[in-house]
Amino acid sequence: MPSDIYVQPEAPDPVLSETVVLALVRAHVPAAHAVTGVDESGGEARTYAVDEAVILKVQRPPQLRPRTSLAKEAWFLRRLAEEPGIAVPRVLGYGRQGSGPTAIEYTVLTRMPGIALRHAPLDAPARPAALRALGQTLRRIHGLPQAPFQQSGLIPGDGDWAAVQARLEELRQLALEPIAPDAPIPGTATTVEALGRRALAALPARGARVALHSNPGPEHTFVDPATGAYQGLIDFGDAYISHPAFDLRRWRAPADRAALFAGYTAAAPVDDDFLATWRVVQVLTDLVVLAHYPDRAAEAVAEIQHLLPDL
Question: pLDDT (tens digit, 9 = 90+) per residue, 170-187?
């Protein structure tokens, strides 16, 4: 899996002045008028809202890492723009200003309407409906012809099924980092170590490999704040190629997974190999949750108990 070592951690990371932001945006949107907000989320990119309708997304120099690429995101979004009905930001421009550690790499994007689902207190009917719509979107993205993604030279990932297996082994190892391998899993007759090995042994001998969003989770899934209706998906900068089940694992609550999977399979079922891989990915993700997120441990254990008979 790609390293998250940052390649220039000491590089300066200033918030750009309004003059610089508008100059970059006006190269692609001449009528741009004013900066109306700055998102300081602390991630790999910083975003500037312009006129409430346009986003300038800038790679933060000290947060530059191998797996994140604005050029990759711009290419991916332009490909998705060719598909009617896939709600993602539209690329208005991409470029680079300067060189070295102080270079500004940027994209100019349309602003996704709504708010991130993580900030939307949705009621019972609205949340699963939004997740079903997200599942439908992911299925459409995964179903696109893959040759352009593989040949772009921009999207890294798993070149064969052995690489997918290695990625899952790393997930299993992540679950073992903070807890003893022989720690029992409540309500079962197995341990963390034994369940991890059992999950990997259940992996089929083959499976699909497609271009993935990487993290279509609650911070990147946008909904209407009033109705909860799904609006779209943002942030493709960490895209990579692997099994499609990895794009479904970011939703850890059982009800969320069920709604997402219902949307994913609404237009067509998945095959047995997909289902087997999806179960393995869920179990290993639950083990990671059990090991690293104590506040979610009971939920992870309940899901493991639910999945264990079919593993």
Answer: 999 998 988 888 989 999
74: CATH? 3.30.200.20
Do 224 and 96 contact (CB within 8 A), yes or no? no
- CB distance 32 to 26 below 8 Å: yes
59 sits in which H/E element: strand 54-59
Residues 272 and 176 in one domain: yes
Determine how many CB atoms are found less than 10 A away from the CB of residue 192: 21
Helix (H, G, I), strand (E, B) or coil at 284: helix
Position 256, amino acid: D
The per-residue pLDDT for range 248-281, each reduced to its tens digit, is: 998 988 899 999 999 999 999 999 999 999 999 9
d(CA 88, CA 239): 14
Nearest to 195 by CA among 208, 187, 158: 187
CB 87 within 8 A of CB 40: no
- Contacts by 15-23 with C-beta closer than 8 Å and gap 24+? 15/40, 15/46, 16/48, 16/58, 16/104, 20/104, 21/48, 21/50, 21/56, 22/50
Question: Are 206 and 288 found together in one domain?
Answer: yes
Return the DSSP state at 183.
P
Tell me whether residue 2 is in a domain.
no
The separation between the first and the last C-alpha atoms of the chain, rounded to the nearest angstrom, is 25
Provide the CATH number for the domain around residue 306.
Answer: 3.90.1200.10
Sheet containing strand 54-59, edge to edge, reads: 35-39, 45-50, 54-59, 104-110, 91-97
Q: What is the pLDDT of residues 145-173, one digit of tens each?
A: 999 999 999 999 999 999 999 999 999 99
The tally of domains found in the chain comes to 2
